[in-house]
Design brief:
Blueprint: H1 3-8, H2 17-30, H3 43-55, H4 60-68, H5 71-74, H6 77-88, H7 90-98, H8 113-126, H9 130-153, H10 165-182, H11 189-216
Amino acid sequence: MSGDDLRLSPPVPHFGRRTEEAFAYALAVHGAQVRKGGPVPYVSHLMAVASLVIEDGGDEDQVVGALLHDAVEDQGGEPRLDDIAHRFGDRVAAIVRACSDSLAEDPRDKAPWAERKAAYLVRLAEESDEGILRVSLGDKLHNARAIASDAAADPGAWRRFNAPPDRIAAYYRACHDVLARRLPGNRFVPDLEIAVTRLERLAGDEMARRAEGDAQA
């Protein structure tokens, strides 16, 4: 690469010690978790979301937020959020808070699934922070892809979730619709459309199988 090429290259975001520390923190917090009853370590999701945020031009705060976006919802609630703010700063904590559908310290104290998802969609529709929207988009895109891939390989995978397939698909469609409005022109919104459309088809197939099973019972 010539000197002219280097001068013409866009500036590259810096990912340094804070990113390393966030990855180590995510491993410590989520190391014993797996994805919804399957064998895949949960940290794979965090790495995937962080990768999407990087590819979408996110800065280090957004990448750190992506790595930690489920730490509060799944592993500690408000006390965890306070610790993240102390270690990684208020900006990262704001991203994590916005991407969490529960701040309950004990997972048993979470509101019902439908209530949490409805409240999240209301907040997402009002969100103007591009970094928060970018992390949310990466989260929803990877989740939609993963759920669809699992369901295609094994329809029984739907039973891991707290809602029936049609409601899960409807939730991801609603997320897509909000993110398409809030992030017009974003490179990953069309990918989310593809993933959600596949999810809807697979959910429809599963609901038809269940209806057929009920009719034969």
